[in-house]
Amino acid sequence: MVPVLSLCMDVQQISLGEAIKQMKLLTKNNIRFSFSFTSFNQDKNTSEGVIKVHAALLRKQSQPHILEYIDTMQELPKRCNIPLLMTFNGLHIKI
After folding, report:
1. 3-state secondary structure string across the chain
2. Residue ranges of the domains in the chain?
């Protein structure tokens, strides 16, 4: 399945819903994907800026607004807030 793309000022975009759908499909087929997000630590009210994940697979999702994944390069389980996703496989996520 190919993601639906739109062009806006020569930037390829994908909807947030379609990006999540593609992540699930790729994970099901054991195909790693990349994405980036803006970090945010709610407890400390701090950010480490943009985090780039070069190879990931999803884990079982326990909360609707959290993306749980395995960073397969570091072999570590991690998570991020779905609303803070910025890119998926090089495509800008539009909200």
Report:
1. CCCCCEEECCEEEEEHHHHHHHHHHHHHCCCCEEEEEECCECCCCECCCEEEEEEEEECCCCCCCEEEEEECCCCEEEEEEHHHEEEECCEEEEC
2. 6-88
Closest listed residue to residue 79, CA positions, set 95, 93, 63? 63
> Which residue's structure tokens are 């975009």?
13
The count of other CB atoms within 10 Å of the CB of residue 19 is 24
If pLDDT is split at 50, 70 and 90, which confidence band does 95 have? confident
List, for residues 41-84, the tens digit of each pLDDT value: 889 999 999 999 999 999 999 999 999 999 999 999 999 999 99
| pTM recorded for the entire structure | 0.84
